[in-house]
Design goal:
Leucine-rich Repeat Variant; 2% strand; mainly alpha; 946 residues; 56 helices; globular; 70% helix; two-stranded antiparallel sheet; 2 strands; Serine Threonine Protein Phosphatase 5, Tetratricopeptide repeat
Length: 946
């Protein structure tokens, strides 16, 4: 039982909170109510009242989820309480949870039929609910029809598959996903998995994957009905499509069951607060017992797949990708330490060294060779080098290095020659990512000699293993002069004499040597013509459709180095067949081709990062007789522009869309660079939109990209939004996803051109509807726009003012202008600016704001307000005159006292002059001025016209 003192304390705190709330001190009221709820064993009725009161505070603070939580807790104590229902209804509506809001409104009317406050909400929600019911009925009919076709074995296979695809489309929408689950759709989909037809299996998996998207409840349901073991079994099959689709399903389950989406929101809030200089704690990722049990079982299952001989190569690839992705500290479930504490690194390295014995005969002799399967996605690089710093401590990095070293010492320590081949293959993988770790292994006694011995052998398989390791030893340009230079004679020999598989790898090694000078026209590491000859050889591998994907990939990698040379760029851009072949191979090849292909496109468009060298530094370098890089004549702007146009017309955007599917942030940055180069040209932006580039850019600007990549993608989005209709370019909800990238460009660290084009794009968006204006306010875009209104840069000031002119159509922005600040004063002063475009925008904003009586009174507090308004009325521009008249009319409408002050001086004479204008182009001005005079007549300030 609570003591009298405790109850008294709770009541006192509640009254204190009520007092603060009435005074508008919301933070203090919240604190008082929270302390009251902390009193031990207060009565349920009292607790419900305090919860409702605190919910009212949260409503003021716009923390709508907190409102829902408190009202729900209050309703558990006092069911159907009108205040709790009303406040929760308001919060649901603000969060666009229409169905929940409607249920609360209906319950409130039932509990309190005379309640008038809820009537407007019901009026707003009723048509929306009716439309949803209509859509749901339609969706239910479609789902039922599709399942009837799918489950009927007598139906034609093509029809069944089409029905499956239709279900996938329906499952992507929330309404469709709900209906599928309600109709026992998961059970029907699991029956499809029992059929011995890969196409039906994959369709069922894809549908299940869509059902689990963004829903923890449905993720648990799918996991319970299907079971993790069955998922991992489908992920182990030899069919790449089925394996990839199952991996996506598993990832959806990991994401949603672990609660990652909520954690990401907390993380974004943390970043936003830190940007604004507000101290806050880094959010901690936590899971309950049920979540932890599932996530741990997934991890164990994936690690087990790495060493299992029953798992296909595609399965091991997918398992490794899932493990690496979920090591991330921000986007994953933080498996890094768990991976290092198990035999994960050994399993990863083992995956590179799965050995098969291949027997073949030659000249009467029988040879037994070791064939090592290549892992395609550079997982070691992903593990060791991440922007998010997943091996976040020196201790974890040391553990990784030690485990790698131990693995190689075992391989080099035994007497089996096959072990040495395996070790060299693993080194090749290490050199593609954590170079320093690979370099440590290269430093072991005898390793370099083994590589050269294998390269000089007559065994094609051994040659291939060795050449790959030699080539990858030069992945970093500043490291190329070491082993690669020593191996040049070997590379030249293999290029002349070996099989295609070895020849193309030797070719890439020579290409790396030829690219030492980068884009410096004065630095030629190879004799004249050699670079062009190498490029021609690479294009030969690329152009030949009879060559395997692997050979074409290596040809692309060679071009990625050689296209730093302007002569090579010009030859490639004019080779239409090679360009189309490159674009074609991107869509068909494995993920290893994505980065080199993107690098080729970056080099062709000159969109790589260039050092900003000051002229004084160049002169200083010449004086000290240091080498000064020179730009090639064919890298001049006119050549680059032509290459960009040729590349876009060859269909590069479709290739960029395909490459953007990669998880590699560095590759995604390369894609962003190419998009940026293309969207500079206004006539090419339509091609970007037509070929799906707009959707791709939204993804690049918001997810899994480097900071530089996100900025470049956002800049491209800004350009597209300026010139194209945003509603057709970004259909549906996607248009709202454009807002944050555009606001990210409104930063002092960005270039003035980026600021300007972002403001222009936002102006275009704000002219469309109030929902977009609300999103800009919610994304904290208003302060950023205001900042540029005060810039000295004329174009930025103008663009920001024009954007704000649209923003003031939002009620929340009007309230902000009504508050205590100098915002309105600045807008009034801008009506008297020298720049007519600034005046037009500011006058337009003032015309809309002046519908508020508070705003009208604040206008008259600005010193020269009469003089400024008179200047708008006598402007030569019709738009400015009309907007000025509109402001004056709103001021006159406030009251007789205000009107008397308005018409003092010359204002009345000017209005009378405007009311008799005969110019037909100024008819709107004449009408508005006449209505101003009519208001003066109503106030009795002037006599009516005879």
């Amino acid at each position: 039982m609570p003591t009298i003192t405790e109850v008294a304390d709770a009541n006192a705190l509640k009254e204190e909170g009520n007092k603060f709330f009435k005074e508008g001190k919301i933070a203090e009221a919240l604190d008082a109510y929270t302390r009251a709820l902390g009193v031990i064993d207060i009565k349920d009725g009292e607790k419900a009242v305090i919860l409702k009161n605190r919910a009212a505070c949260y409503l003021k603070e716009e923390d709508y989820q907190a409102v829902i939580n408190d009202c729900t807790a209050a309703l558990e104590v006092t069911p159907n309480d009108p205040k709790a229902l009303y406040r929760r209804c308001q919060a649901y509506e603000q969060l666009e949870k229409v169905e929940e809001a409607y249920k609360d409104a209906a319950a409130l009317i039932k509990a309190d039929p005379k309640n008038t406050a809820v009537q407007p909400i019901l009026k707003r929600l009723n048509p929306i609910i009716q439309e949803k019911v209509k859509q749901q009925n339609s969706t239910s009919a479609k789902v039922k029809q599709m399942f009837e076709l799918v489950t009927n074995s007598k139906t034609d296979k093509e029809q069944r598959l089409q029905a499956c695809n239709n279900l996938i489309v329906l499952a992507r929408e929330e309404a469709g996903a709900k209906v599928i689950c309600e109709m026992s759709g998961i059970d029907n989909l699991l029956k499809l998995l029992q059929e011995k037809d890969v196409e039906f299996n994959q369709a069922a998996i894809r549908c299940l994957s869509c059902l689990t998207m963004d829903s923890q409840e449905r993720s648990y349901l799918v996991q319970e009905k299907m079971g993790l073991q069955k998922m991992l079994a489908f992920m182990s099959v030899k069919d790449e499509g089925l394996c990839t689709s199952t991996a996506l399903l598993v990832q959806n389950l990991i994401t949603n069951i672990s609660g990652l989406p909520e954690y990401r929101k907390q993380l974004q809030h943390y970043k936003d607060e830190r940007k604004q200089g507000n101290p806050c704690r880094y959010p901690k990722f936590e899971m309950d017992e049920r979540q932890t049990e599932f996530i741990d079982s997934v991890f164990k299952g994936l690690v087990k797949m790495l060493k299992s001989n029953k798992v296909s190569g595609f399965g091991r690839d997918s398992a490794m990708e899932l493990i690496i992705k979920n090591m991330l500290r921000t986007d994953g479930v933080q498996w890094t330490r768990k991976f290092l504490d198990t035999d994960g690194v050994e399993g990863l390295l083992y995956q590179h060294t799965i050995v098969f014995t291949v027997v073949f005969s030659h000249s009467g002799w029988v040879y037994s060779l070791v064939l090592t399967i290549v892992f395609r996605n550079r997982p070691l690089a992903n593990l060791y080098y991440r922007d998010t710093n997943d091996l976040g401590s020196d201790k974890e990095r040391d553990m990784f290095r030690d485990q790698c070293s131990a693995f190689f010492k075992d391989l080099f320590g035994d007497s089996l020659f096959e072990s040495k081949v395996e070790a060299i293959k693993c080194i090749s993988s290490l050199l593609q990512g954590p170079y320093e770790v690979g370099n440590i292994i290269l430093g072991f006694d005898g390793v370099t000699q083994i590589m050269l011995t294998l390269a000089n052998s007559d065994n094609p398989m051994h040659q291939q293993v060795a050449v790959e390791a030699i080539v990858h030893s030069a992945s970093k340009k500043d490291k190329c002069a070491g082993l690669l230079n020593d191996a040049v004679p070997v590379l030249k020999k293999l290029y002349q004499e070996s099989t295609d598989a070895v020849k193309v790898r030797a070719l890439v090694g020579l290409c790396k040597l030829g690219s030492f000078g980068g884009s410096d026209a004065s630095h030629r590491p190879m004799q004249d013509g050699s670079t062009l000859a190498l490029a021609k050889a690479c294009r030969k591998f690329l152009n030949d459709p009879n060559k395997s994907v692997d050979l074409r990939r290596w040809g692309t990698e060679g071009l990625a180095y050689l296209t730093l040379d302007a002569e090579v760029k010009e030859e490639l851009i004019n080779d239409t067949a090679a360009l189309k072949s490159l674009i074609d191979v991107v869509a068909k090849a494995d993920k290893n081709i994505l980065y080199p292909a993107a690098s080729v496109f970056v080099n062709l468009t000159n969109s790589y990062e260039k050092p900003d060298i000051q002229p004084e530094m160049i002169e200083l370098a010449k004086y000290s007789k240091q080498h000064v890089p020179e730009e090639h004549q064919k890298d001049k702007p006119e050549f680059v522009k032509q290459r960009v146009h040729n590349l876009a017309k060859a269909g590069v955007v479709s290739a960029l869309v395909a490459i953007a599917s990669t998880d590699s942030p560095n590759t995604r940055e390369q894609i962003s660079r190419v998009y940026n180069a293309i969207t500079v040209e206004e006539d090419l932006r339509g091609i970007v939109v037509q070929q799906g580039g707009a959707k791709s850019l939204v993804d690049l600007a918001t997810k899994n990209n480097t900071d530089a990549g996100k900025i470049l993608a956002s800049w491209s989005l800004a350009r597209i939004t300026i010139t194209a209709n945003p509603e057709t370019t970004f259909p549906g909800q996607r248009i709202f996803e454009v807002v944050r990238p555009l606001i990210s460009l409104l930063h002092p660290d960005r270039m003035a051109l980026q600021n300007f084009e972002a403001l222009m794009a936002l102006t275009n968006l704000t002219s469309l509807n109030d929902s977009l204006r609300k999103r800009i306010v919610a994304e904290n875009g208003l302060p950023a726009i205001e900042h540029y209104m005060t810039e000295d840069h004329e174009m930025l000031k103008r663009a920001a003012t024009e954007c704000m002119c649209n923003m003031v159509m939002n009620e929340e922005v009007v309230k902000i202008y009504e508050g205590e600040s100098d915002r309105l004063k600045l807008m009034v002063l801008y009506c008297g600016d020298e720049d007519e475009l600034v005046v037009r925008a500011a006058a337009g904003a003032l015309a809309m704001l002046s519908h508020s009586e508070k705003i009208c009174k604040k206008i008259m507090e600005v010193g020269p307000w009469q003089e400024i308004l008179l200047s708008t009325l006598v402007s030569e521009k019709v738009e400015i005159q009309h907007r000025g008249c509109f402001v004056v009319r709103n001021l006159l409408s406030v009251s007789k006292e205000v009107a008397e002050k308005v018409i003092e001086g010359q204002m009345l004479e000017v209005l009378m002059a405007l009311s008799i204008l005969e110019d037909p182009q100024k008819e709107v001005v004449r009408k508005c001025a006449s209505s101003c005079l009519d208001i003066c007549v109503e106030h009795g300030l002037i006599k009516p016209k005879e």
